[in-house]
Amino acid sequence: MDQQQLFVKMAVDGWNQQLKFTNDTLDKILDEELLNEISPGKNRGIYLLGHLVAVHDLMLPLLRFEEALYPELVQPFIKAPDKTVADLPPVSQLREQWNIVNDKLAAHINNLSPADWFTRHNSVSEEDFAKEPHRNRLNVLMGRTSHLANHRGQIVLLVPKSK
Amino acid sequence: MDQQQLFVKMAVDGWNQQLKFTNDTLDKILDEELLNEISPGKNRGIYLLGHLVAVHDLMLPLLRFEEALYPELVQPFIKAPDKTVADLPPVSQLREQWNIVNDKLAAHINNLSPADWFTRHNSVSEEDFAKEPHRNRLNVLMGRTSHLANHRGQIVLLVPKSK
Predict the structure, then answer these.
(1) Which residues of chain B have a CB within 8 Å of the CB of A145?
(2) Could you list the residue ranges that cross the membrane (chains A, B) (predicted)?
(3) Which residue of A16, B27, B105, B157 has the lowest C-beta tally within 10 Å?
(4) Quick count: other Cβ atoms within 10 Å of Cβ A109?
(5) Between chains, do B151 and A146 touch, taking CB under 8 Å as contact?
(6) Please, what are the averages of pLDDT over each run of 10 residues along chain A (163 residues)?
(7) Structural domain contains residue A163
(8) Is the ipTM of this complex over 0.85?
(9) Quick one: closest CA in A to B6, which residue?
């Protein structure tokens, strides 16, 4: 395994680990429990789940894999704060979209060659990328791993004590 | 910048970013507000701060930098759950230790050569490391970045609405 392969493995393993932790957490929370706030006056579980679906979905174009599958989730789950949008999709649908988008990402992630991980992501120009080579696709994955960990630490607050 | 320098920069930048986010969050919370639970029945801010100090302190030996500064924090903030230890250090002391331990880590982090980041961390043997080269010091830093993000997402719940 060369250095580049090794580093890609480290970053992809970190991503997969946070996804697994998050899925283990979501499996312990009922749909109706996701309607609760993580703490009084704070975001609800449904909002955080929808937010993660929307952010991961946008990784598809950002990583230059393919178009986003659910652009309609950007408004209610990224642009708008929680409890300001009247009609959110049901939790069951968000769970399904969560699995679909992560499976899509996984297929692309597992197919990308180590060298291609170090090419630019979609929101940096060729010109800027030449000067700032750290703005590559792998760096997006690492940033989104921290983003996921951040919100997983919040969603876990909804797991009932018995589990 | 060669490939190895680039990887190290990506991982160290990610670590520094999460530290900055966490410090910005802690700056908005008063010492007495850190005595509150992040959500009813859950960990208190003081416990999460002490936990982060203790975990970061253990990175000093784990990364083969130097001995831990505050081994006495392991029992109350890692081994014991919150609200089971009667006498915790005051928040003001934990904040001071938090800054000291992160400054110590930063000095070592900034001094370590890119090649040395890809050597083994302290809890893997030379023999196992030969077979599993991803168990290196940089991987510890990446894992602790997610750990920090996870708990930062919880501590942020204590920031008063006005800030």
Answers:
(1) 146
(2) none
(3) B27
(4) 20
(5) no
(6) 92 98 98 98 98 98 98 98 95 98 98 95 94 95 98 98 83
(7) no
(8) yes
(9) A134
